[in-house]
Amino acid sequence: MKSGTERYRTIARSLVLGISILSALLAQPVDKLVRTDHFVTVNSTAPSLKGKTAKIYVREVARAAIDAQQGPVRVILFIHGAGTPAEAAFDVAYKDYSWMAFLARSGYDVFAMDMTGYGRSTRPEPMDNPCNLTPQQQAQFVPAVIPAPCAAVYKDSATTMDSDWNDIGAVVDYLFKLRGVKQVSLIGWSLGGPRAGGYASQHPEKVSRLILLSPAYRRTASAQTPIPAAPMNTQSRAEFDANWDRQIGCPDQFDMAARNAVWIGMLASDSLGKTWGSGVRRAPNVGFHGWDAAVAGKMKIPALFVAPAQDKQVQPKSVGDLFADYGAKAKILVDLACSSHNALWEKNHLLLFQASQEFLSKGTVNGAHDGTVRAGY
Questions:
Q1: Which of the four, 6, 106, 160, 251, has the lowest number of CB atoms within 10 Å?
Q2: How far apart (Å, rounded) are the C-alpha atoms in residues 197 and 208?
Q3: pTM reported for the whole predicted model
């Protein structure tokens, strides 16, 4: 039989153990995130697939199930630009550079999709043949990939803006069924501007808010997209670096480790492209139409536009033109300092992420409901 002292010691040890376990549980992050892969089947309208079905890759980042049940379901869909697939663009595996994770920790169910021809979505067969590149791009693959420059065997577009809108529609409808919602918020970057904005203009009832970073825009756009010089393009690491370097205007504008993480993600998304020469990422050449002053002027969806000050791919003036033309009263333009077209991967990325979160939750940025907001100055 234990003495009184021994019983007290046993009880004390049990309390200490219980407190230790409770402390360990409390120390666990309440914002633990879960990543889930989805593949959405779409009846393709891409010229290179001729009515066949395609698989659209969708990445989900959301809180663990125990947290996801709290509060209303709020769904965000990211739309990528002309070159970088969605998971490499928006879910960067480096420190706090994942835009998707940032918003997921705020309680949103966050999704990002790869259009046909990108990432882990269906790649049209013409994209597997380097002969379908322009002669200038073919040159870098001689003789390692092709023995000599060769004539294109496919001369139409691989995909179009219309087929991109068709892909977005299939994913949005899938998310409606998956999460039981009737609207999503869209976040588009670069060519993701006319992709997301054009879709929203056609289906305003399905989109609650619109956020566009460096959106491609022309006040006067052609009625139909012209056929490009080649159905696809490639980008090497040297080209990736050079395009970024020409947009550096501030000291320490980016972290080299972040740049490396993005490039690793880009190559990982292209199992064939990474075997061409030193490794490239492939993408369709896609022009756009249906995203001009006439379309933007009719839109009423609350929108946030972000114009990085050092952007040399989509000039800040062009984003300002879109902001001026956009028809909704609820609209904000963020002038983001010391940032390039790749602002989401640079030192001021958290200013961008925070602005998007505030706009999604409150319809404001730094408390402002409309007008221009300067950030990072």
A1: 251
A2: 12
A3: 0.90
C-alpha 164/C-alpha 331 separation (Å) is 25
- Digit-coded pLDDT (tens) for 47-63: 999 889 999 999 999 99
How far does CA 214 lie from the centroid of its chain?
A: 12
With CA atoms as reference, report the closest residue to 167 among 302, 248, 91, 55: 55
Q: Is 107 left (phi over 0), alpha (psi -120 to 50) or beta?
A: left
Which pair of structure tokens corresponds to residue 294? 């006439």
| Segment (H or E) for 261 | helix 256-268
Separation CA 207–CA 203 (nearest Å):
7
Find the angle CA(97)-CA(102)-CA(105) to the nearest 5 degrees: 145
Question: What is the H or E stretch that residue 311 is in?
Answer: none
Distance spanning both ends of the chain, measured CA to CA: 74
The count of other CB atoms within 10 Å of the CB of residue 369 is 14
